[in-house]
Design a protein that fits this description.
Blueprint lengths: L3 E2 L2 H8 L10 E6 L5 E8 L2 E8 L2 E8 L2 E3 L9 E15 L9 E14 L4 E9 L2 E8 L7 E7 L2 E4 L4 E4 L12 E4 L6 E2 L2 E4 L5 E7 L7 E5 L5 E6 L8 E4 L2 E2 L2 E7 L2 H6 L2 H4 L15 E6 L1 H4 L15 H14 L3 E4 L26 H10 L3 E7 L4 H18 L3 E5 L14 H16 L3 E4 L15 E4 L7 H4 L7 H4 L4 H4 L26 H10 L4 E3 L13 H6 L6 E8 L3 E8 L2 E8 L4 E6 L8 E9 L12 E9 L3 E6 L4 E8 L3
Parallel strand pairs: 23-24, 23-29, 24-25, 25-26, 26-27, 27-28
Antiparallel strand pairs: 1-7, 2-3, 3-4, 4-5, 5-12, 6-11, 7-8, 8-9, 9-10, 10-21, 10-22, 11-20, 12-19, 13-14, 13-16, 15-18, 16-17, 17-22, 18-19, 30-31, 31-32, 32-37, 33-36, 34-35, 34-37
Helix pairs in contact: 5-6, 7-8
Length: about 675
């Protein structure tokens, strides 16, 4: 990292004007390129703290930083400023895949070196972007700090108002919860990203980036005011983070936007990660897939062997044939390997041995012949030691067979007991699996994961993750309410792509589970392919429900890798409309909560002077998620950039549109 040293005295004098309550203290500021957003770092009575302003208005009041350790000098007080460097980051890069083909990374970065009387030093790096701020701490290897056992990260976020907040509870093992909307004062312990709206209409989201060899961050409500405090997921003995120096924290991020759509369009989380670590990434191919999956959730099939075993050679061949004939890239097979009868116990799976009715090698060859990728499945049941012992052999087998993608699963408690899915021990494991998969040219779809923090920039074979209350909850619970997917783009999806598994056409599946259902219309299922981003995107229903179904044409056509993304309109928890471009084609997805809505959108995102054929998949005039969910219409229009499109959404409904330029 190149830095440019400037005068500390000059920096303090010039920058204290921005720091509000930090005036008269040792304070520096990083100011965004557009001058609207600033993060200020101050040392107040020896204690490091930061604050954030937007358009001169306080967003985060002076909030403490620092660490407490077991049998080590604390790093939260007794500091003075020893030195400072700054730089302007101005770069662009092209993701291997993503929501946009071109990403700008522009910010003002300031690194401040703090020193204690004992001689211990700590760097605090702050960054100001147009769409938010970020900060992290770096403690170098030095006398008195060779190794550490951290008992607390003292970071806090002292918000300046009782903001409207969308959140899920902090859960050290799962993010699969329904989002709540409350005032900040009523928030309990929360997972990140946590998203807020101020009274003035500013949207804020707190998360983290580049989570590497560290514990996942949750936030707990502070006793006083509108403050949230960092609460790291612990080891079984209560230690939060342990290791050898240097100590490098993830970036703590605060995204900001005047609109909810601006949060979605931001690339801060990716930008705070290192560039791609792979010299050759030509083998990484985003794709849609079908699979042996939904049938188990609705009770048609079983994971384990028996009369209704889903993962048979015959069923898999049908899936491969369907995928090949309909232009679907992959076929996922769950329940192919022995061990499902003892799922959840140590040593249940070896990840190599198929059930007798599943011809792994023959099916892999058949899929290759038909131009389809067979997607492997590794369910660990939380048995990490067994998986780590056997994963290299399993990945090598898949590489030999041409199986280029694997869905991993970590359902259940972690072995060894006491470890959490989101603690440092598991963060290390998840990253190790990503690296090993890359060595064998394997893409990953991780279920029961650690949350995304932008490492897809560095390791683009980390394609997508669950980490969300997804489609399967509709099969065996009260289900996900209609508003659920209108919240996800502004909360969980800000962290990264999510494998929600949309595309259910048999909304009520009465033949298998008459007391369960999906809480959307069919047209909304189509719109989710645009609204919810994932480079591995499942057409989740039974393939017989797609056969000869006119609406399936949209799933066949919609990409899962994009050149451009724009949010046309959104109200979190109510509705969202997103357009995405791939090449010259545009796709629109619009969804609503339980309320019907009619909206009109300018088509000025289309290329001027061109005429497009718009194929519209809309709710039928009598559609309703509760009473008539499968009513839909398909119509074709000729449109251009000067026109407007009226979108009529039924209760719990949606609309999907494909815009294809007509030949001149």
């Amino acid at each position: 990292m190149q830095t440019y040293v400037v005068s500390i005295l000059g920096a303090v004098f010039a920058l204290c004007m921005f720091a509000g309550s930090a005036v008269g203290k040792e304070a520096v500021t990083a100011l965004s390129p557009d001058g609207r957003t600033a993060i200020h770092l101050a040392v107040v009575n020896g204690r490091p703290c930061y604050s954030v302003t937007r358009d001169g208005r306080r967003i985060v009041d002076d909030s403490r930083l620092g660490f407490l350790f077991l049998e080590r000098e604390p790093l939260n007080r007794g500091f003075t400023v020893r030195g400072m460097g700054e730089r302007q980051v101005d770069e662009s890069w092209e993701p291997v895949w993503g929501s946009d083909a071109h990403v700008e990374n522009r910010c003002h970065e300031v690194t401040v070196t703090l020193e204690k009387g004992s001689g211990l030093t700590m760097d605090v790096i702050i960054r100001a972007y147009n769409d938010g701020v970020a900060f992290r701490c770096f403690v170098p290897d030095q006398e008195g700090f060779r190794s550490f056992e951290m008992v607390s990260e003292e970071t806090e976020f002292r918000l300046t108002g009782d903001h409207t907040t969308w959140w899920i509870p902090a859960d050290f093992d799962s993010y699969e919860h329904i989002y709540r909307q409350t005032r900040l004062a009523n928030v309990e312990a929360v997972a990140t990203p946590v998203t807020m709206r101020t009274e003035e209409g500013l949207y804020i989201s707190i998360h983290e980036a580049n989570l590497t060899d560290y514990a996942g961050m949750t936030l707990r409500k502070a006793p006083v005011g509108f403050s949230l405090e960092c609460d790291l997921v612990p080891w079984p003995d209560g230690i939060k983070v342990r290791g050898g120096a240097p100590l490098v924290t993830p970036w703590r991020t605060i995204q900001m936007s005047d609109t909810p759509g601006g949060l979605v369009e931001s690339h801060i989380i990716e930008n705070l990660n290192e560039p791609c670590a792979l010299k050759d990434h030509s083998w990484i191919k985003p794709m849609k897939y079908v699979g042996i999956w939904w049938g188990m959730h609705i009770g048609k099939d079983t994971w384990s062997q028996g009369e209704n075993h889903g993962a048979t050679s015959a069923n898999t061949r049908k899936m491969i044939d369907f995928a090949a004939e309909h232009g679907i890239g992959g076929v996922l097979v769950e329940g192919w390997n022995t061990g499902w009868e003892t799922w959840g116990s140590a040593g249940a799976f070896d990840y190599i041995t198929p059930y007798p009715d599943f011809d792994l090698e023959g099916l892999a060859a058949y899929a290759r012949e038909r131009g389809v990728v067979l997607i492997g499945h590794h369910e660990t049941g939380g048995d990490i030691p067994t998986y780590e012992d056997r994963v290299e052999e399993a990945f090598a087998l898949y590489e030999r067979l041409g199986i280029r993608a694997v869905k991993t699963g970590y359902a259940g408690g972690i072995f060894p007991r006491g470890q959490h899915h989101h603690g440092q021990w598991m963060v290390r494991h998840y990253r190790s699996i990503v690296r090993k998969a890359a060595k064998h040219h394997i893409m990953l779809d991780v279920h029961e994961p650690i949350k995304p923090t932008g490492i897809r920039r560095t390791w683009p074979n980390m394609m997508t993750r669950e980490g969300v209350r997804g489609m399967e909850y509709n099969a065996w619970s009260d289900g996900n309410p209609p508003e659920h997917t209108t919240i996800l783009p502004f909360t969980r999806m800000l962290a990264g792509p999510l494998d929600y598994t949309p595309g259910i056409f048999d909304i009520t599946f009465d033949q298998y589970k008459p007391d369960n259902r999906v809480h959307t219309t069919l047209a909304k299922q189509l719109a989710l392919y645009v609204v919810l981003e994932s480079p591995l995107q499942m057409a989740a229903d039974l393939i017989e429900n797609y056969e000869n179904h006119p609406a399936f044409a949209f799933i066949q056509a919609v990409p899962c890798d994009w050149d451009e993304t724009r949010v046309l309109s959104a109200a979190i928890g109510d509705h969202v409309t997103i357009v995405r471009r791939r090449g010259q084609e545009w796709f629109l997805g619009s969804i609503t909560d339980e309320e019907p809505r009619t909206m009109v959108f300018a088509l000025d995102f289309l290329e001027r002077g061109a005429t497009y054929e718009a194929t519209v998949y809309s709710d039928g005039p009598d559609a309703d998620w509760l009473t008539n969910p499968q009513s839909y219409e398909i119509r074709t229009l000729a449109v251009d950039a000067s026109e407007k499109l009226e979108v009529r959404l039924a209760a719990g409904g949606g609309e999907a549109v494909r815009f294809v330029p007509r030949a001149p």
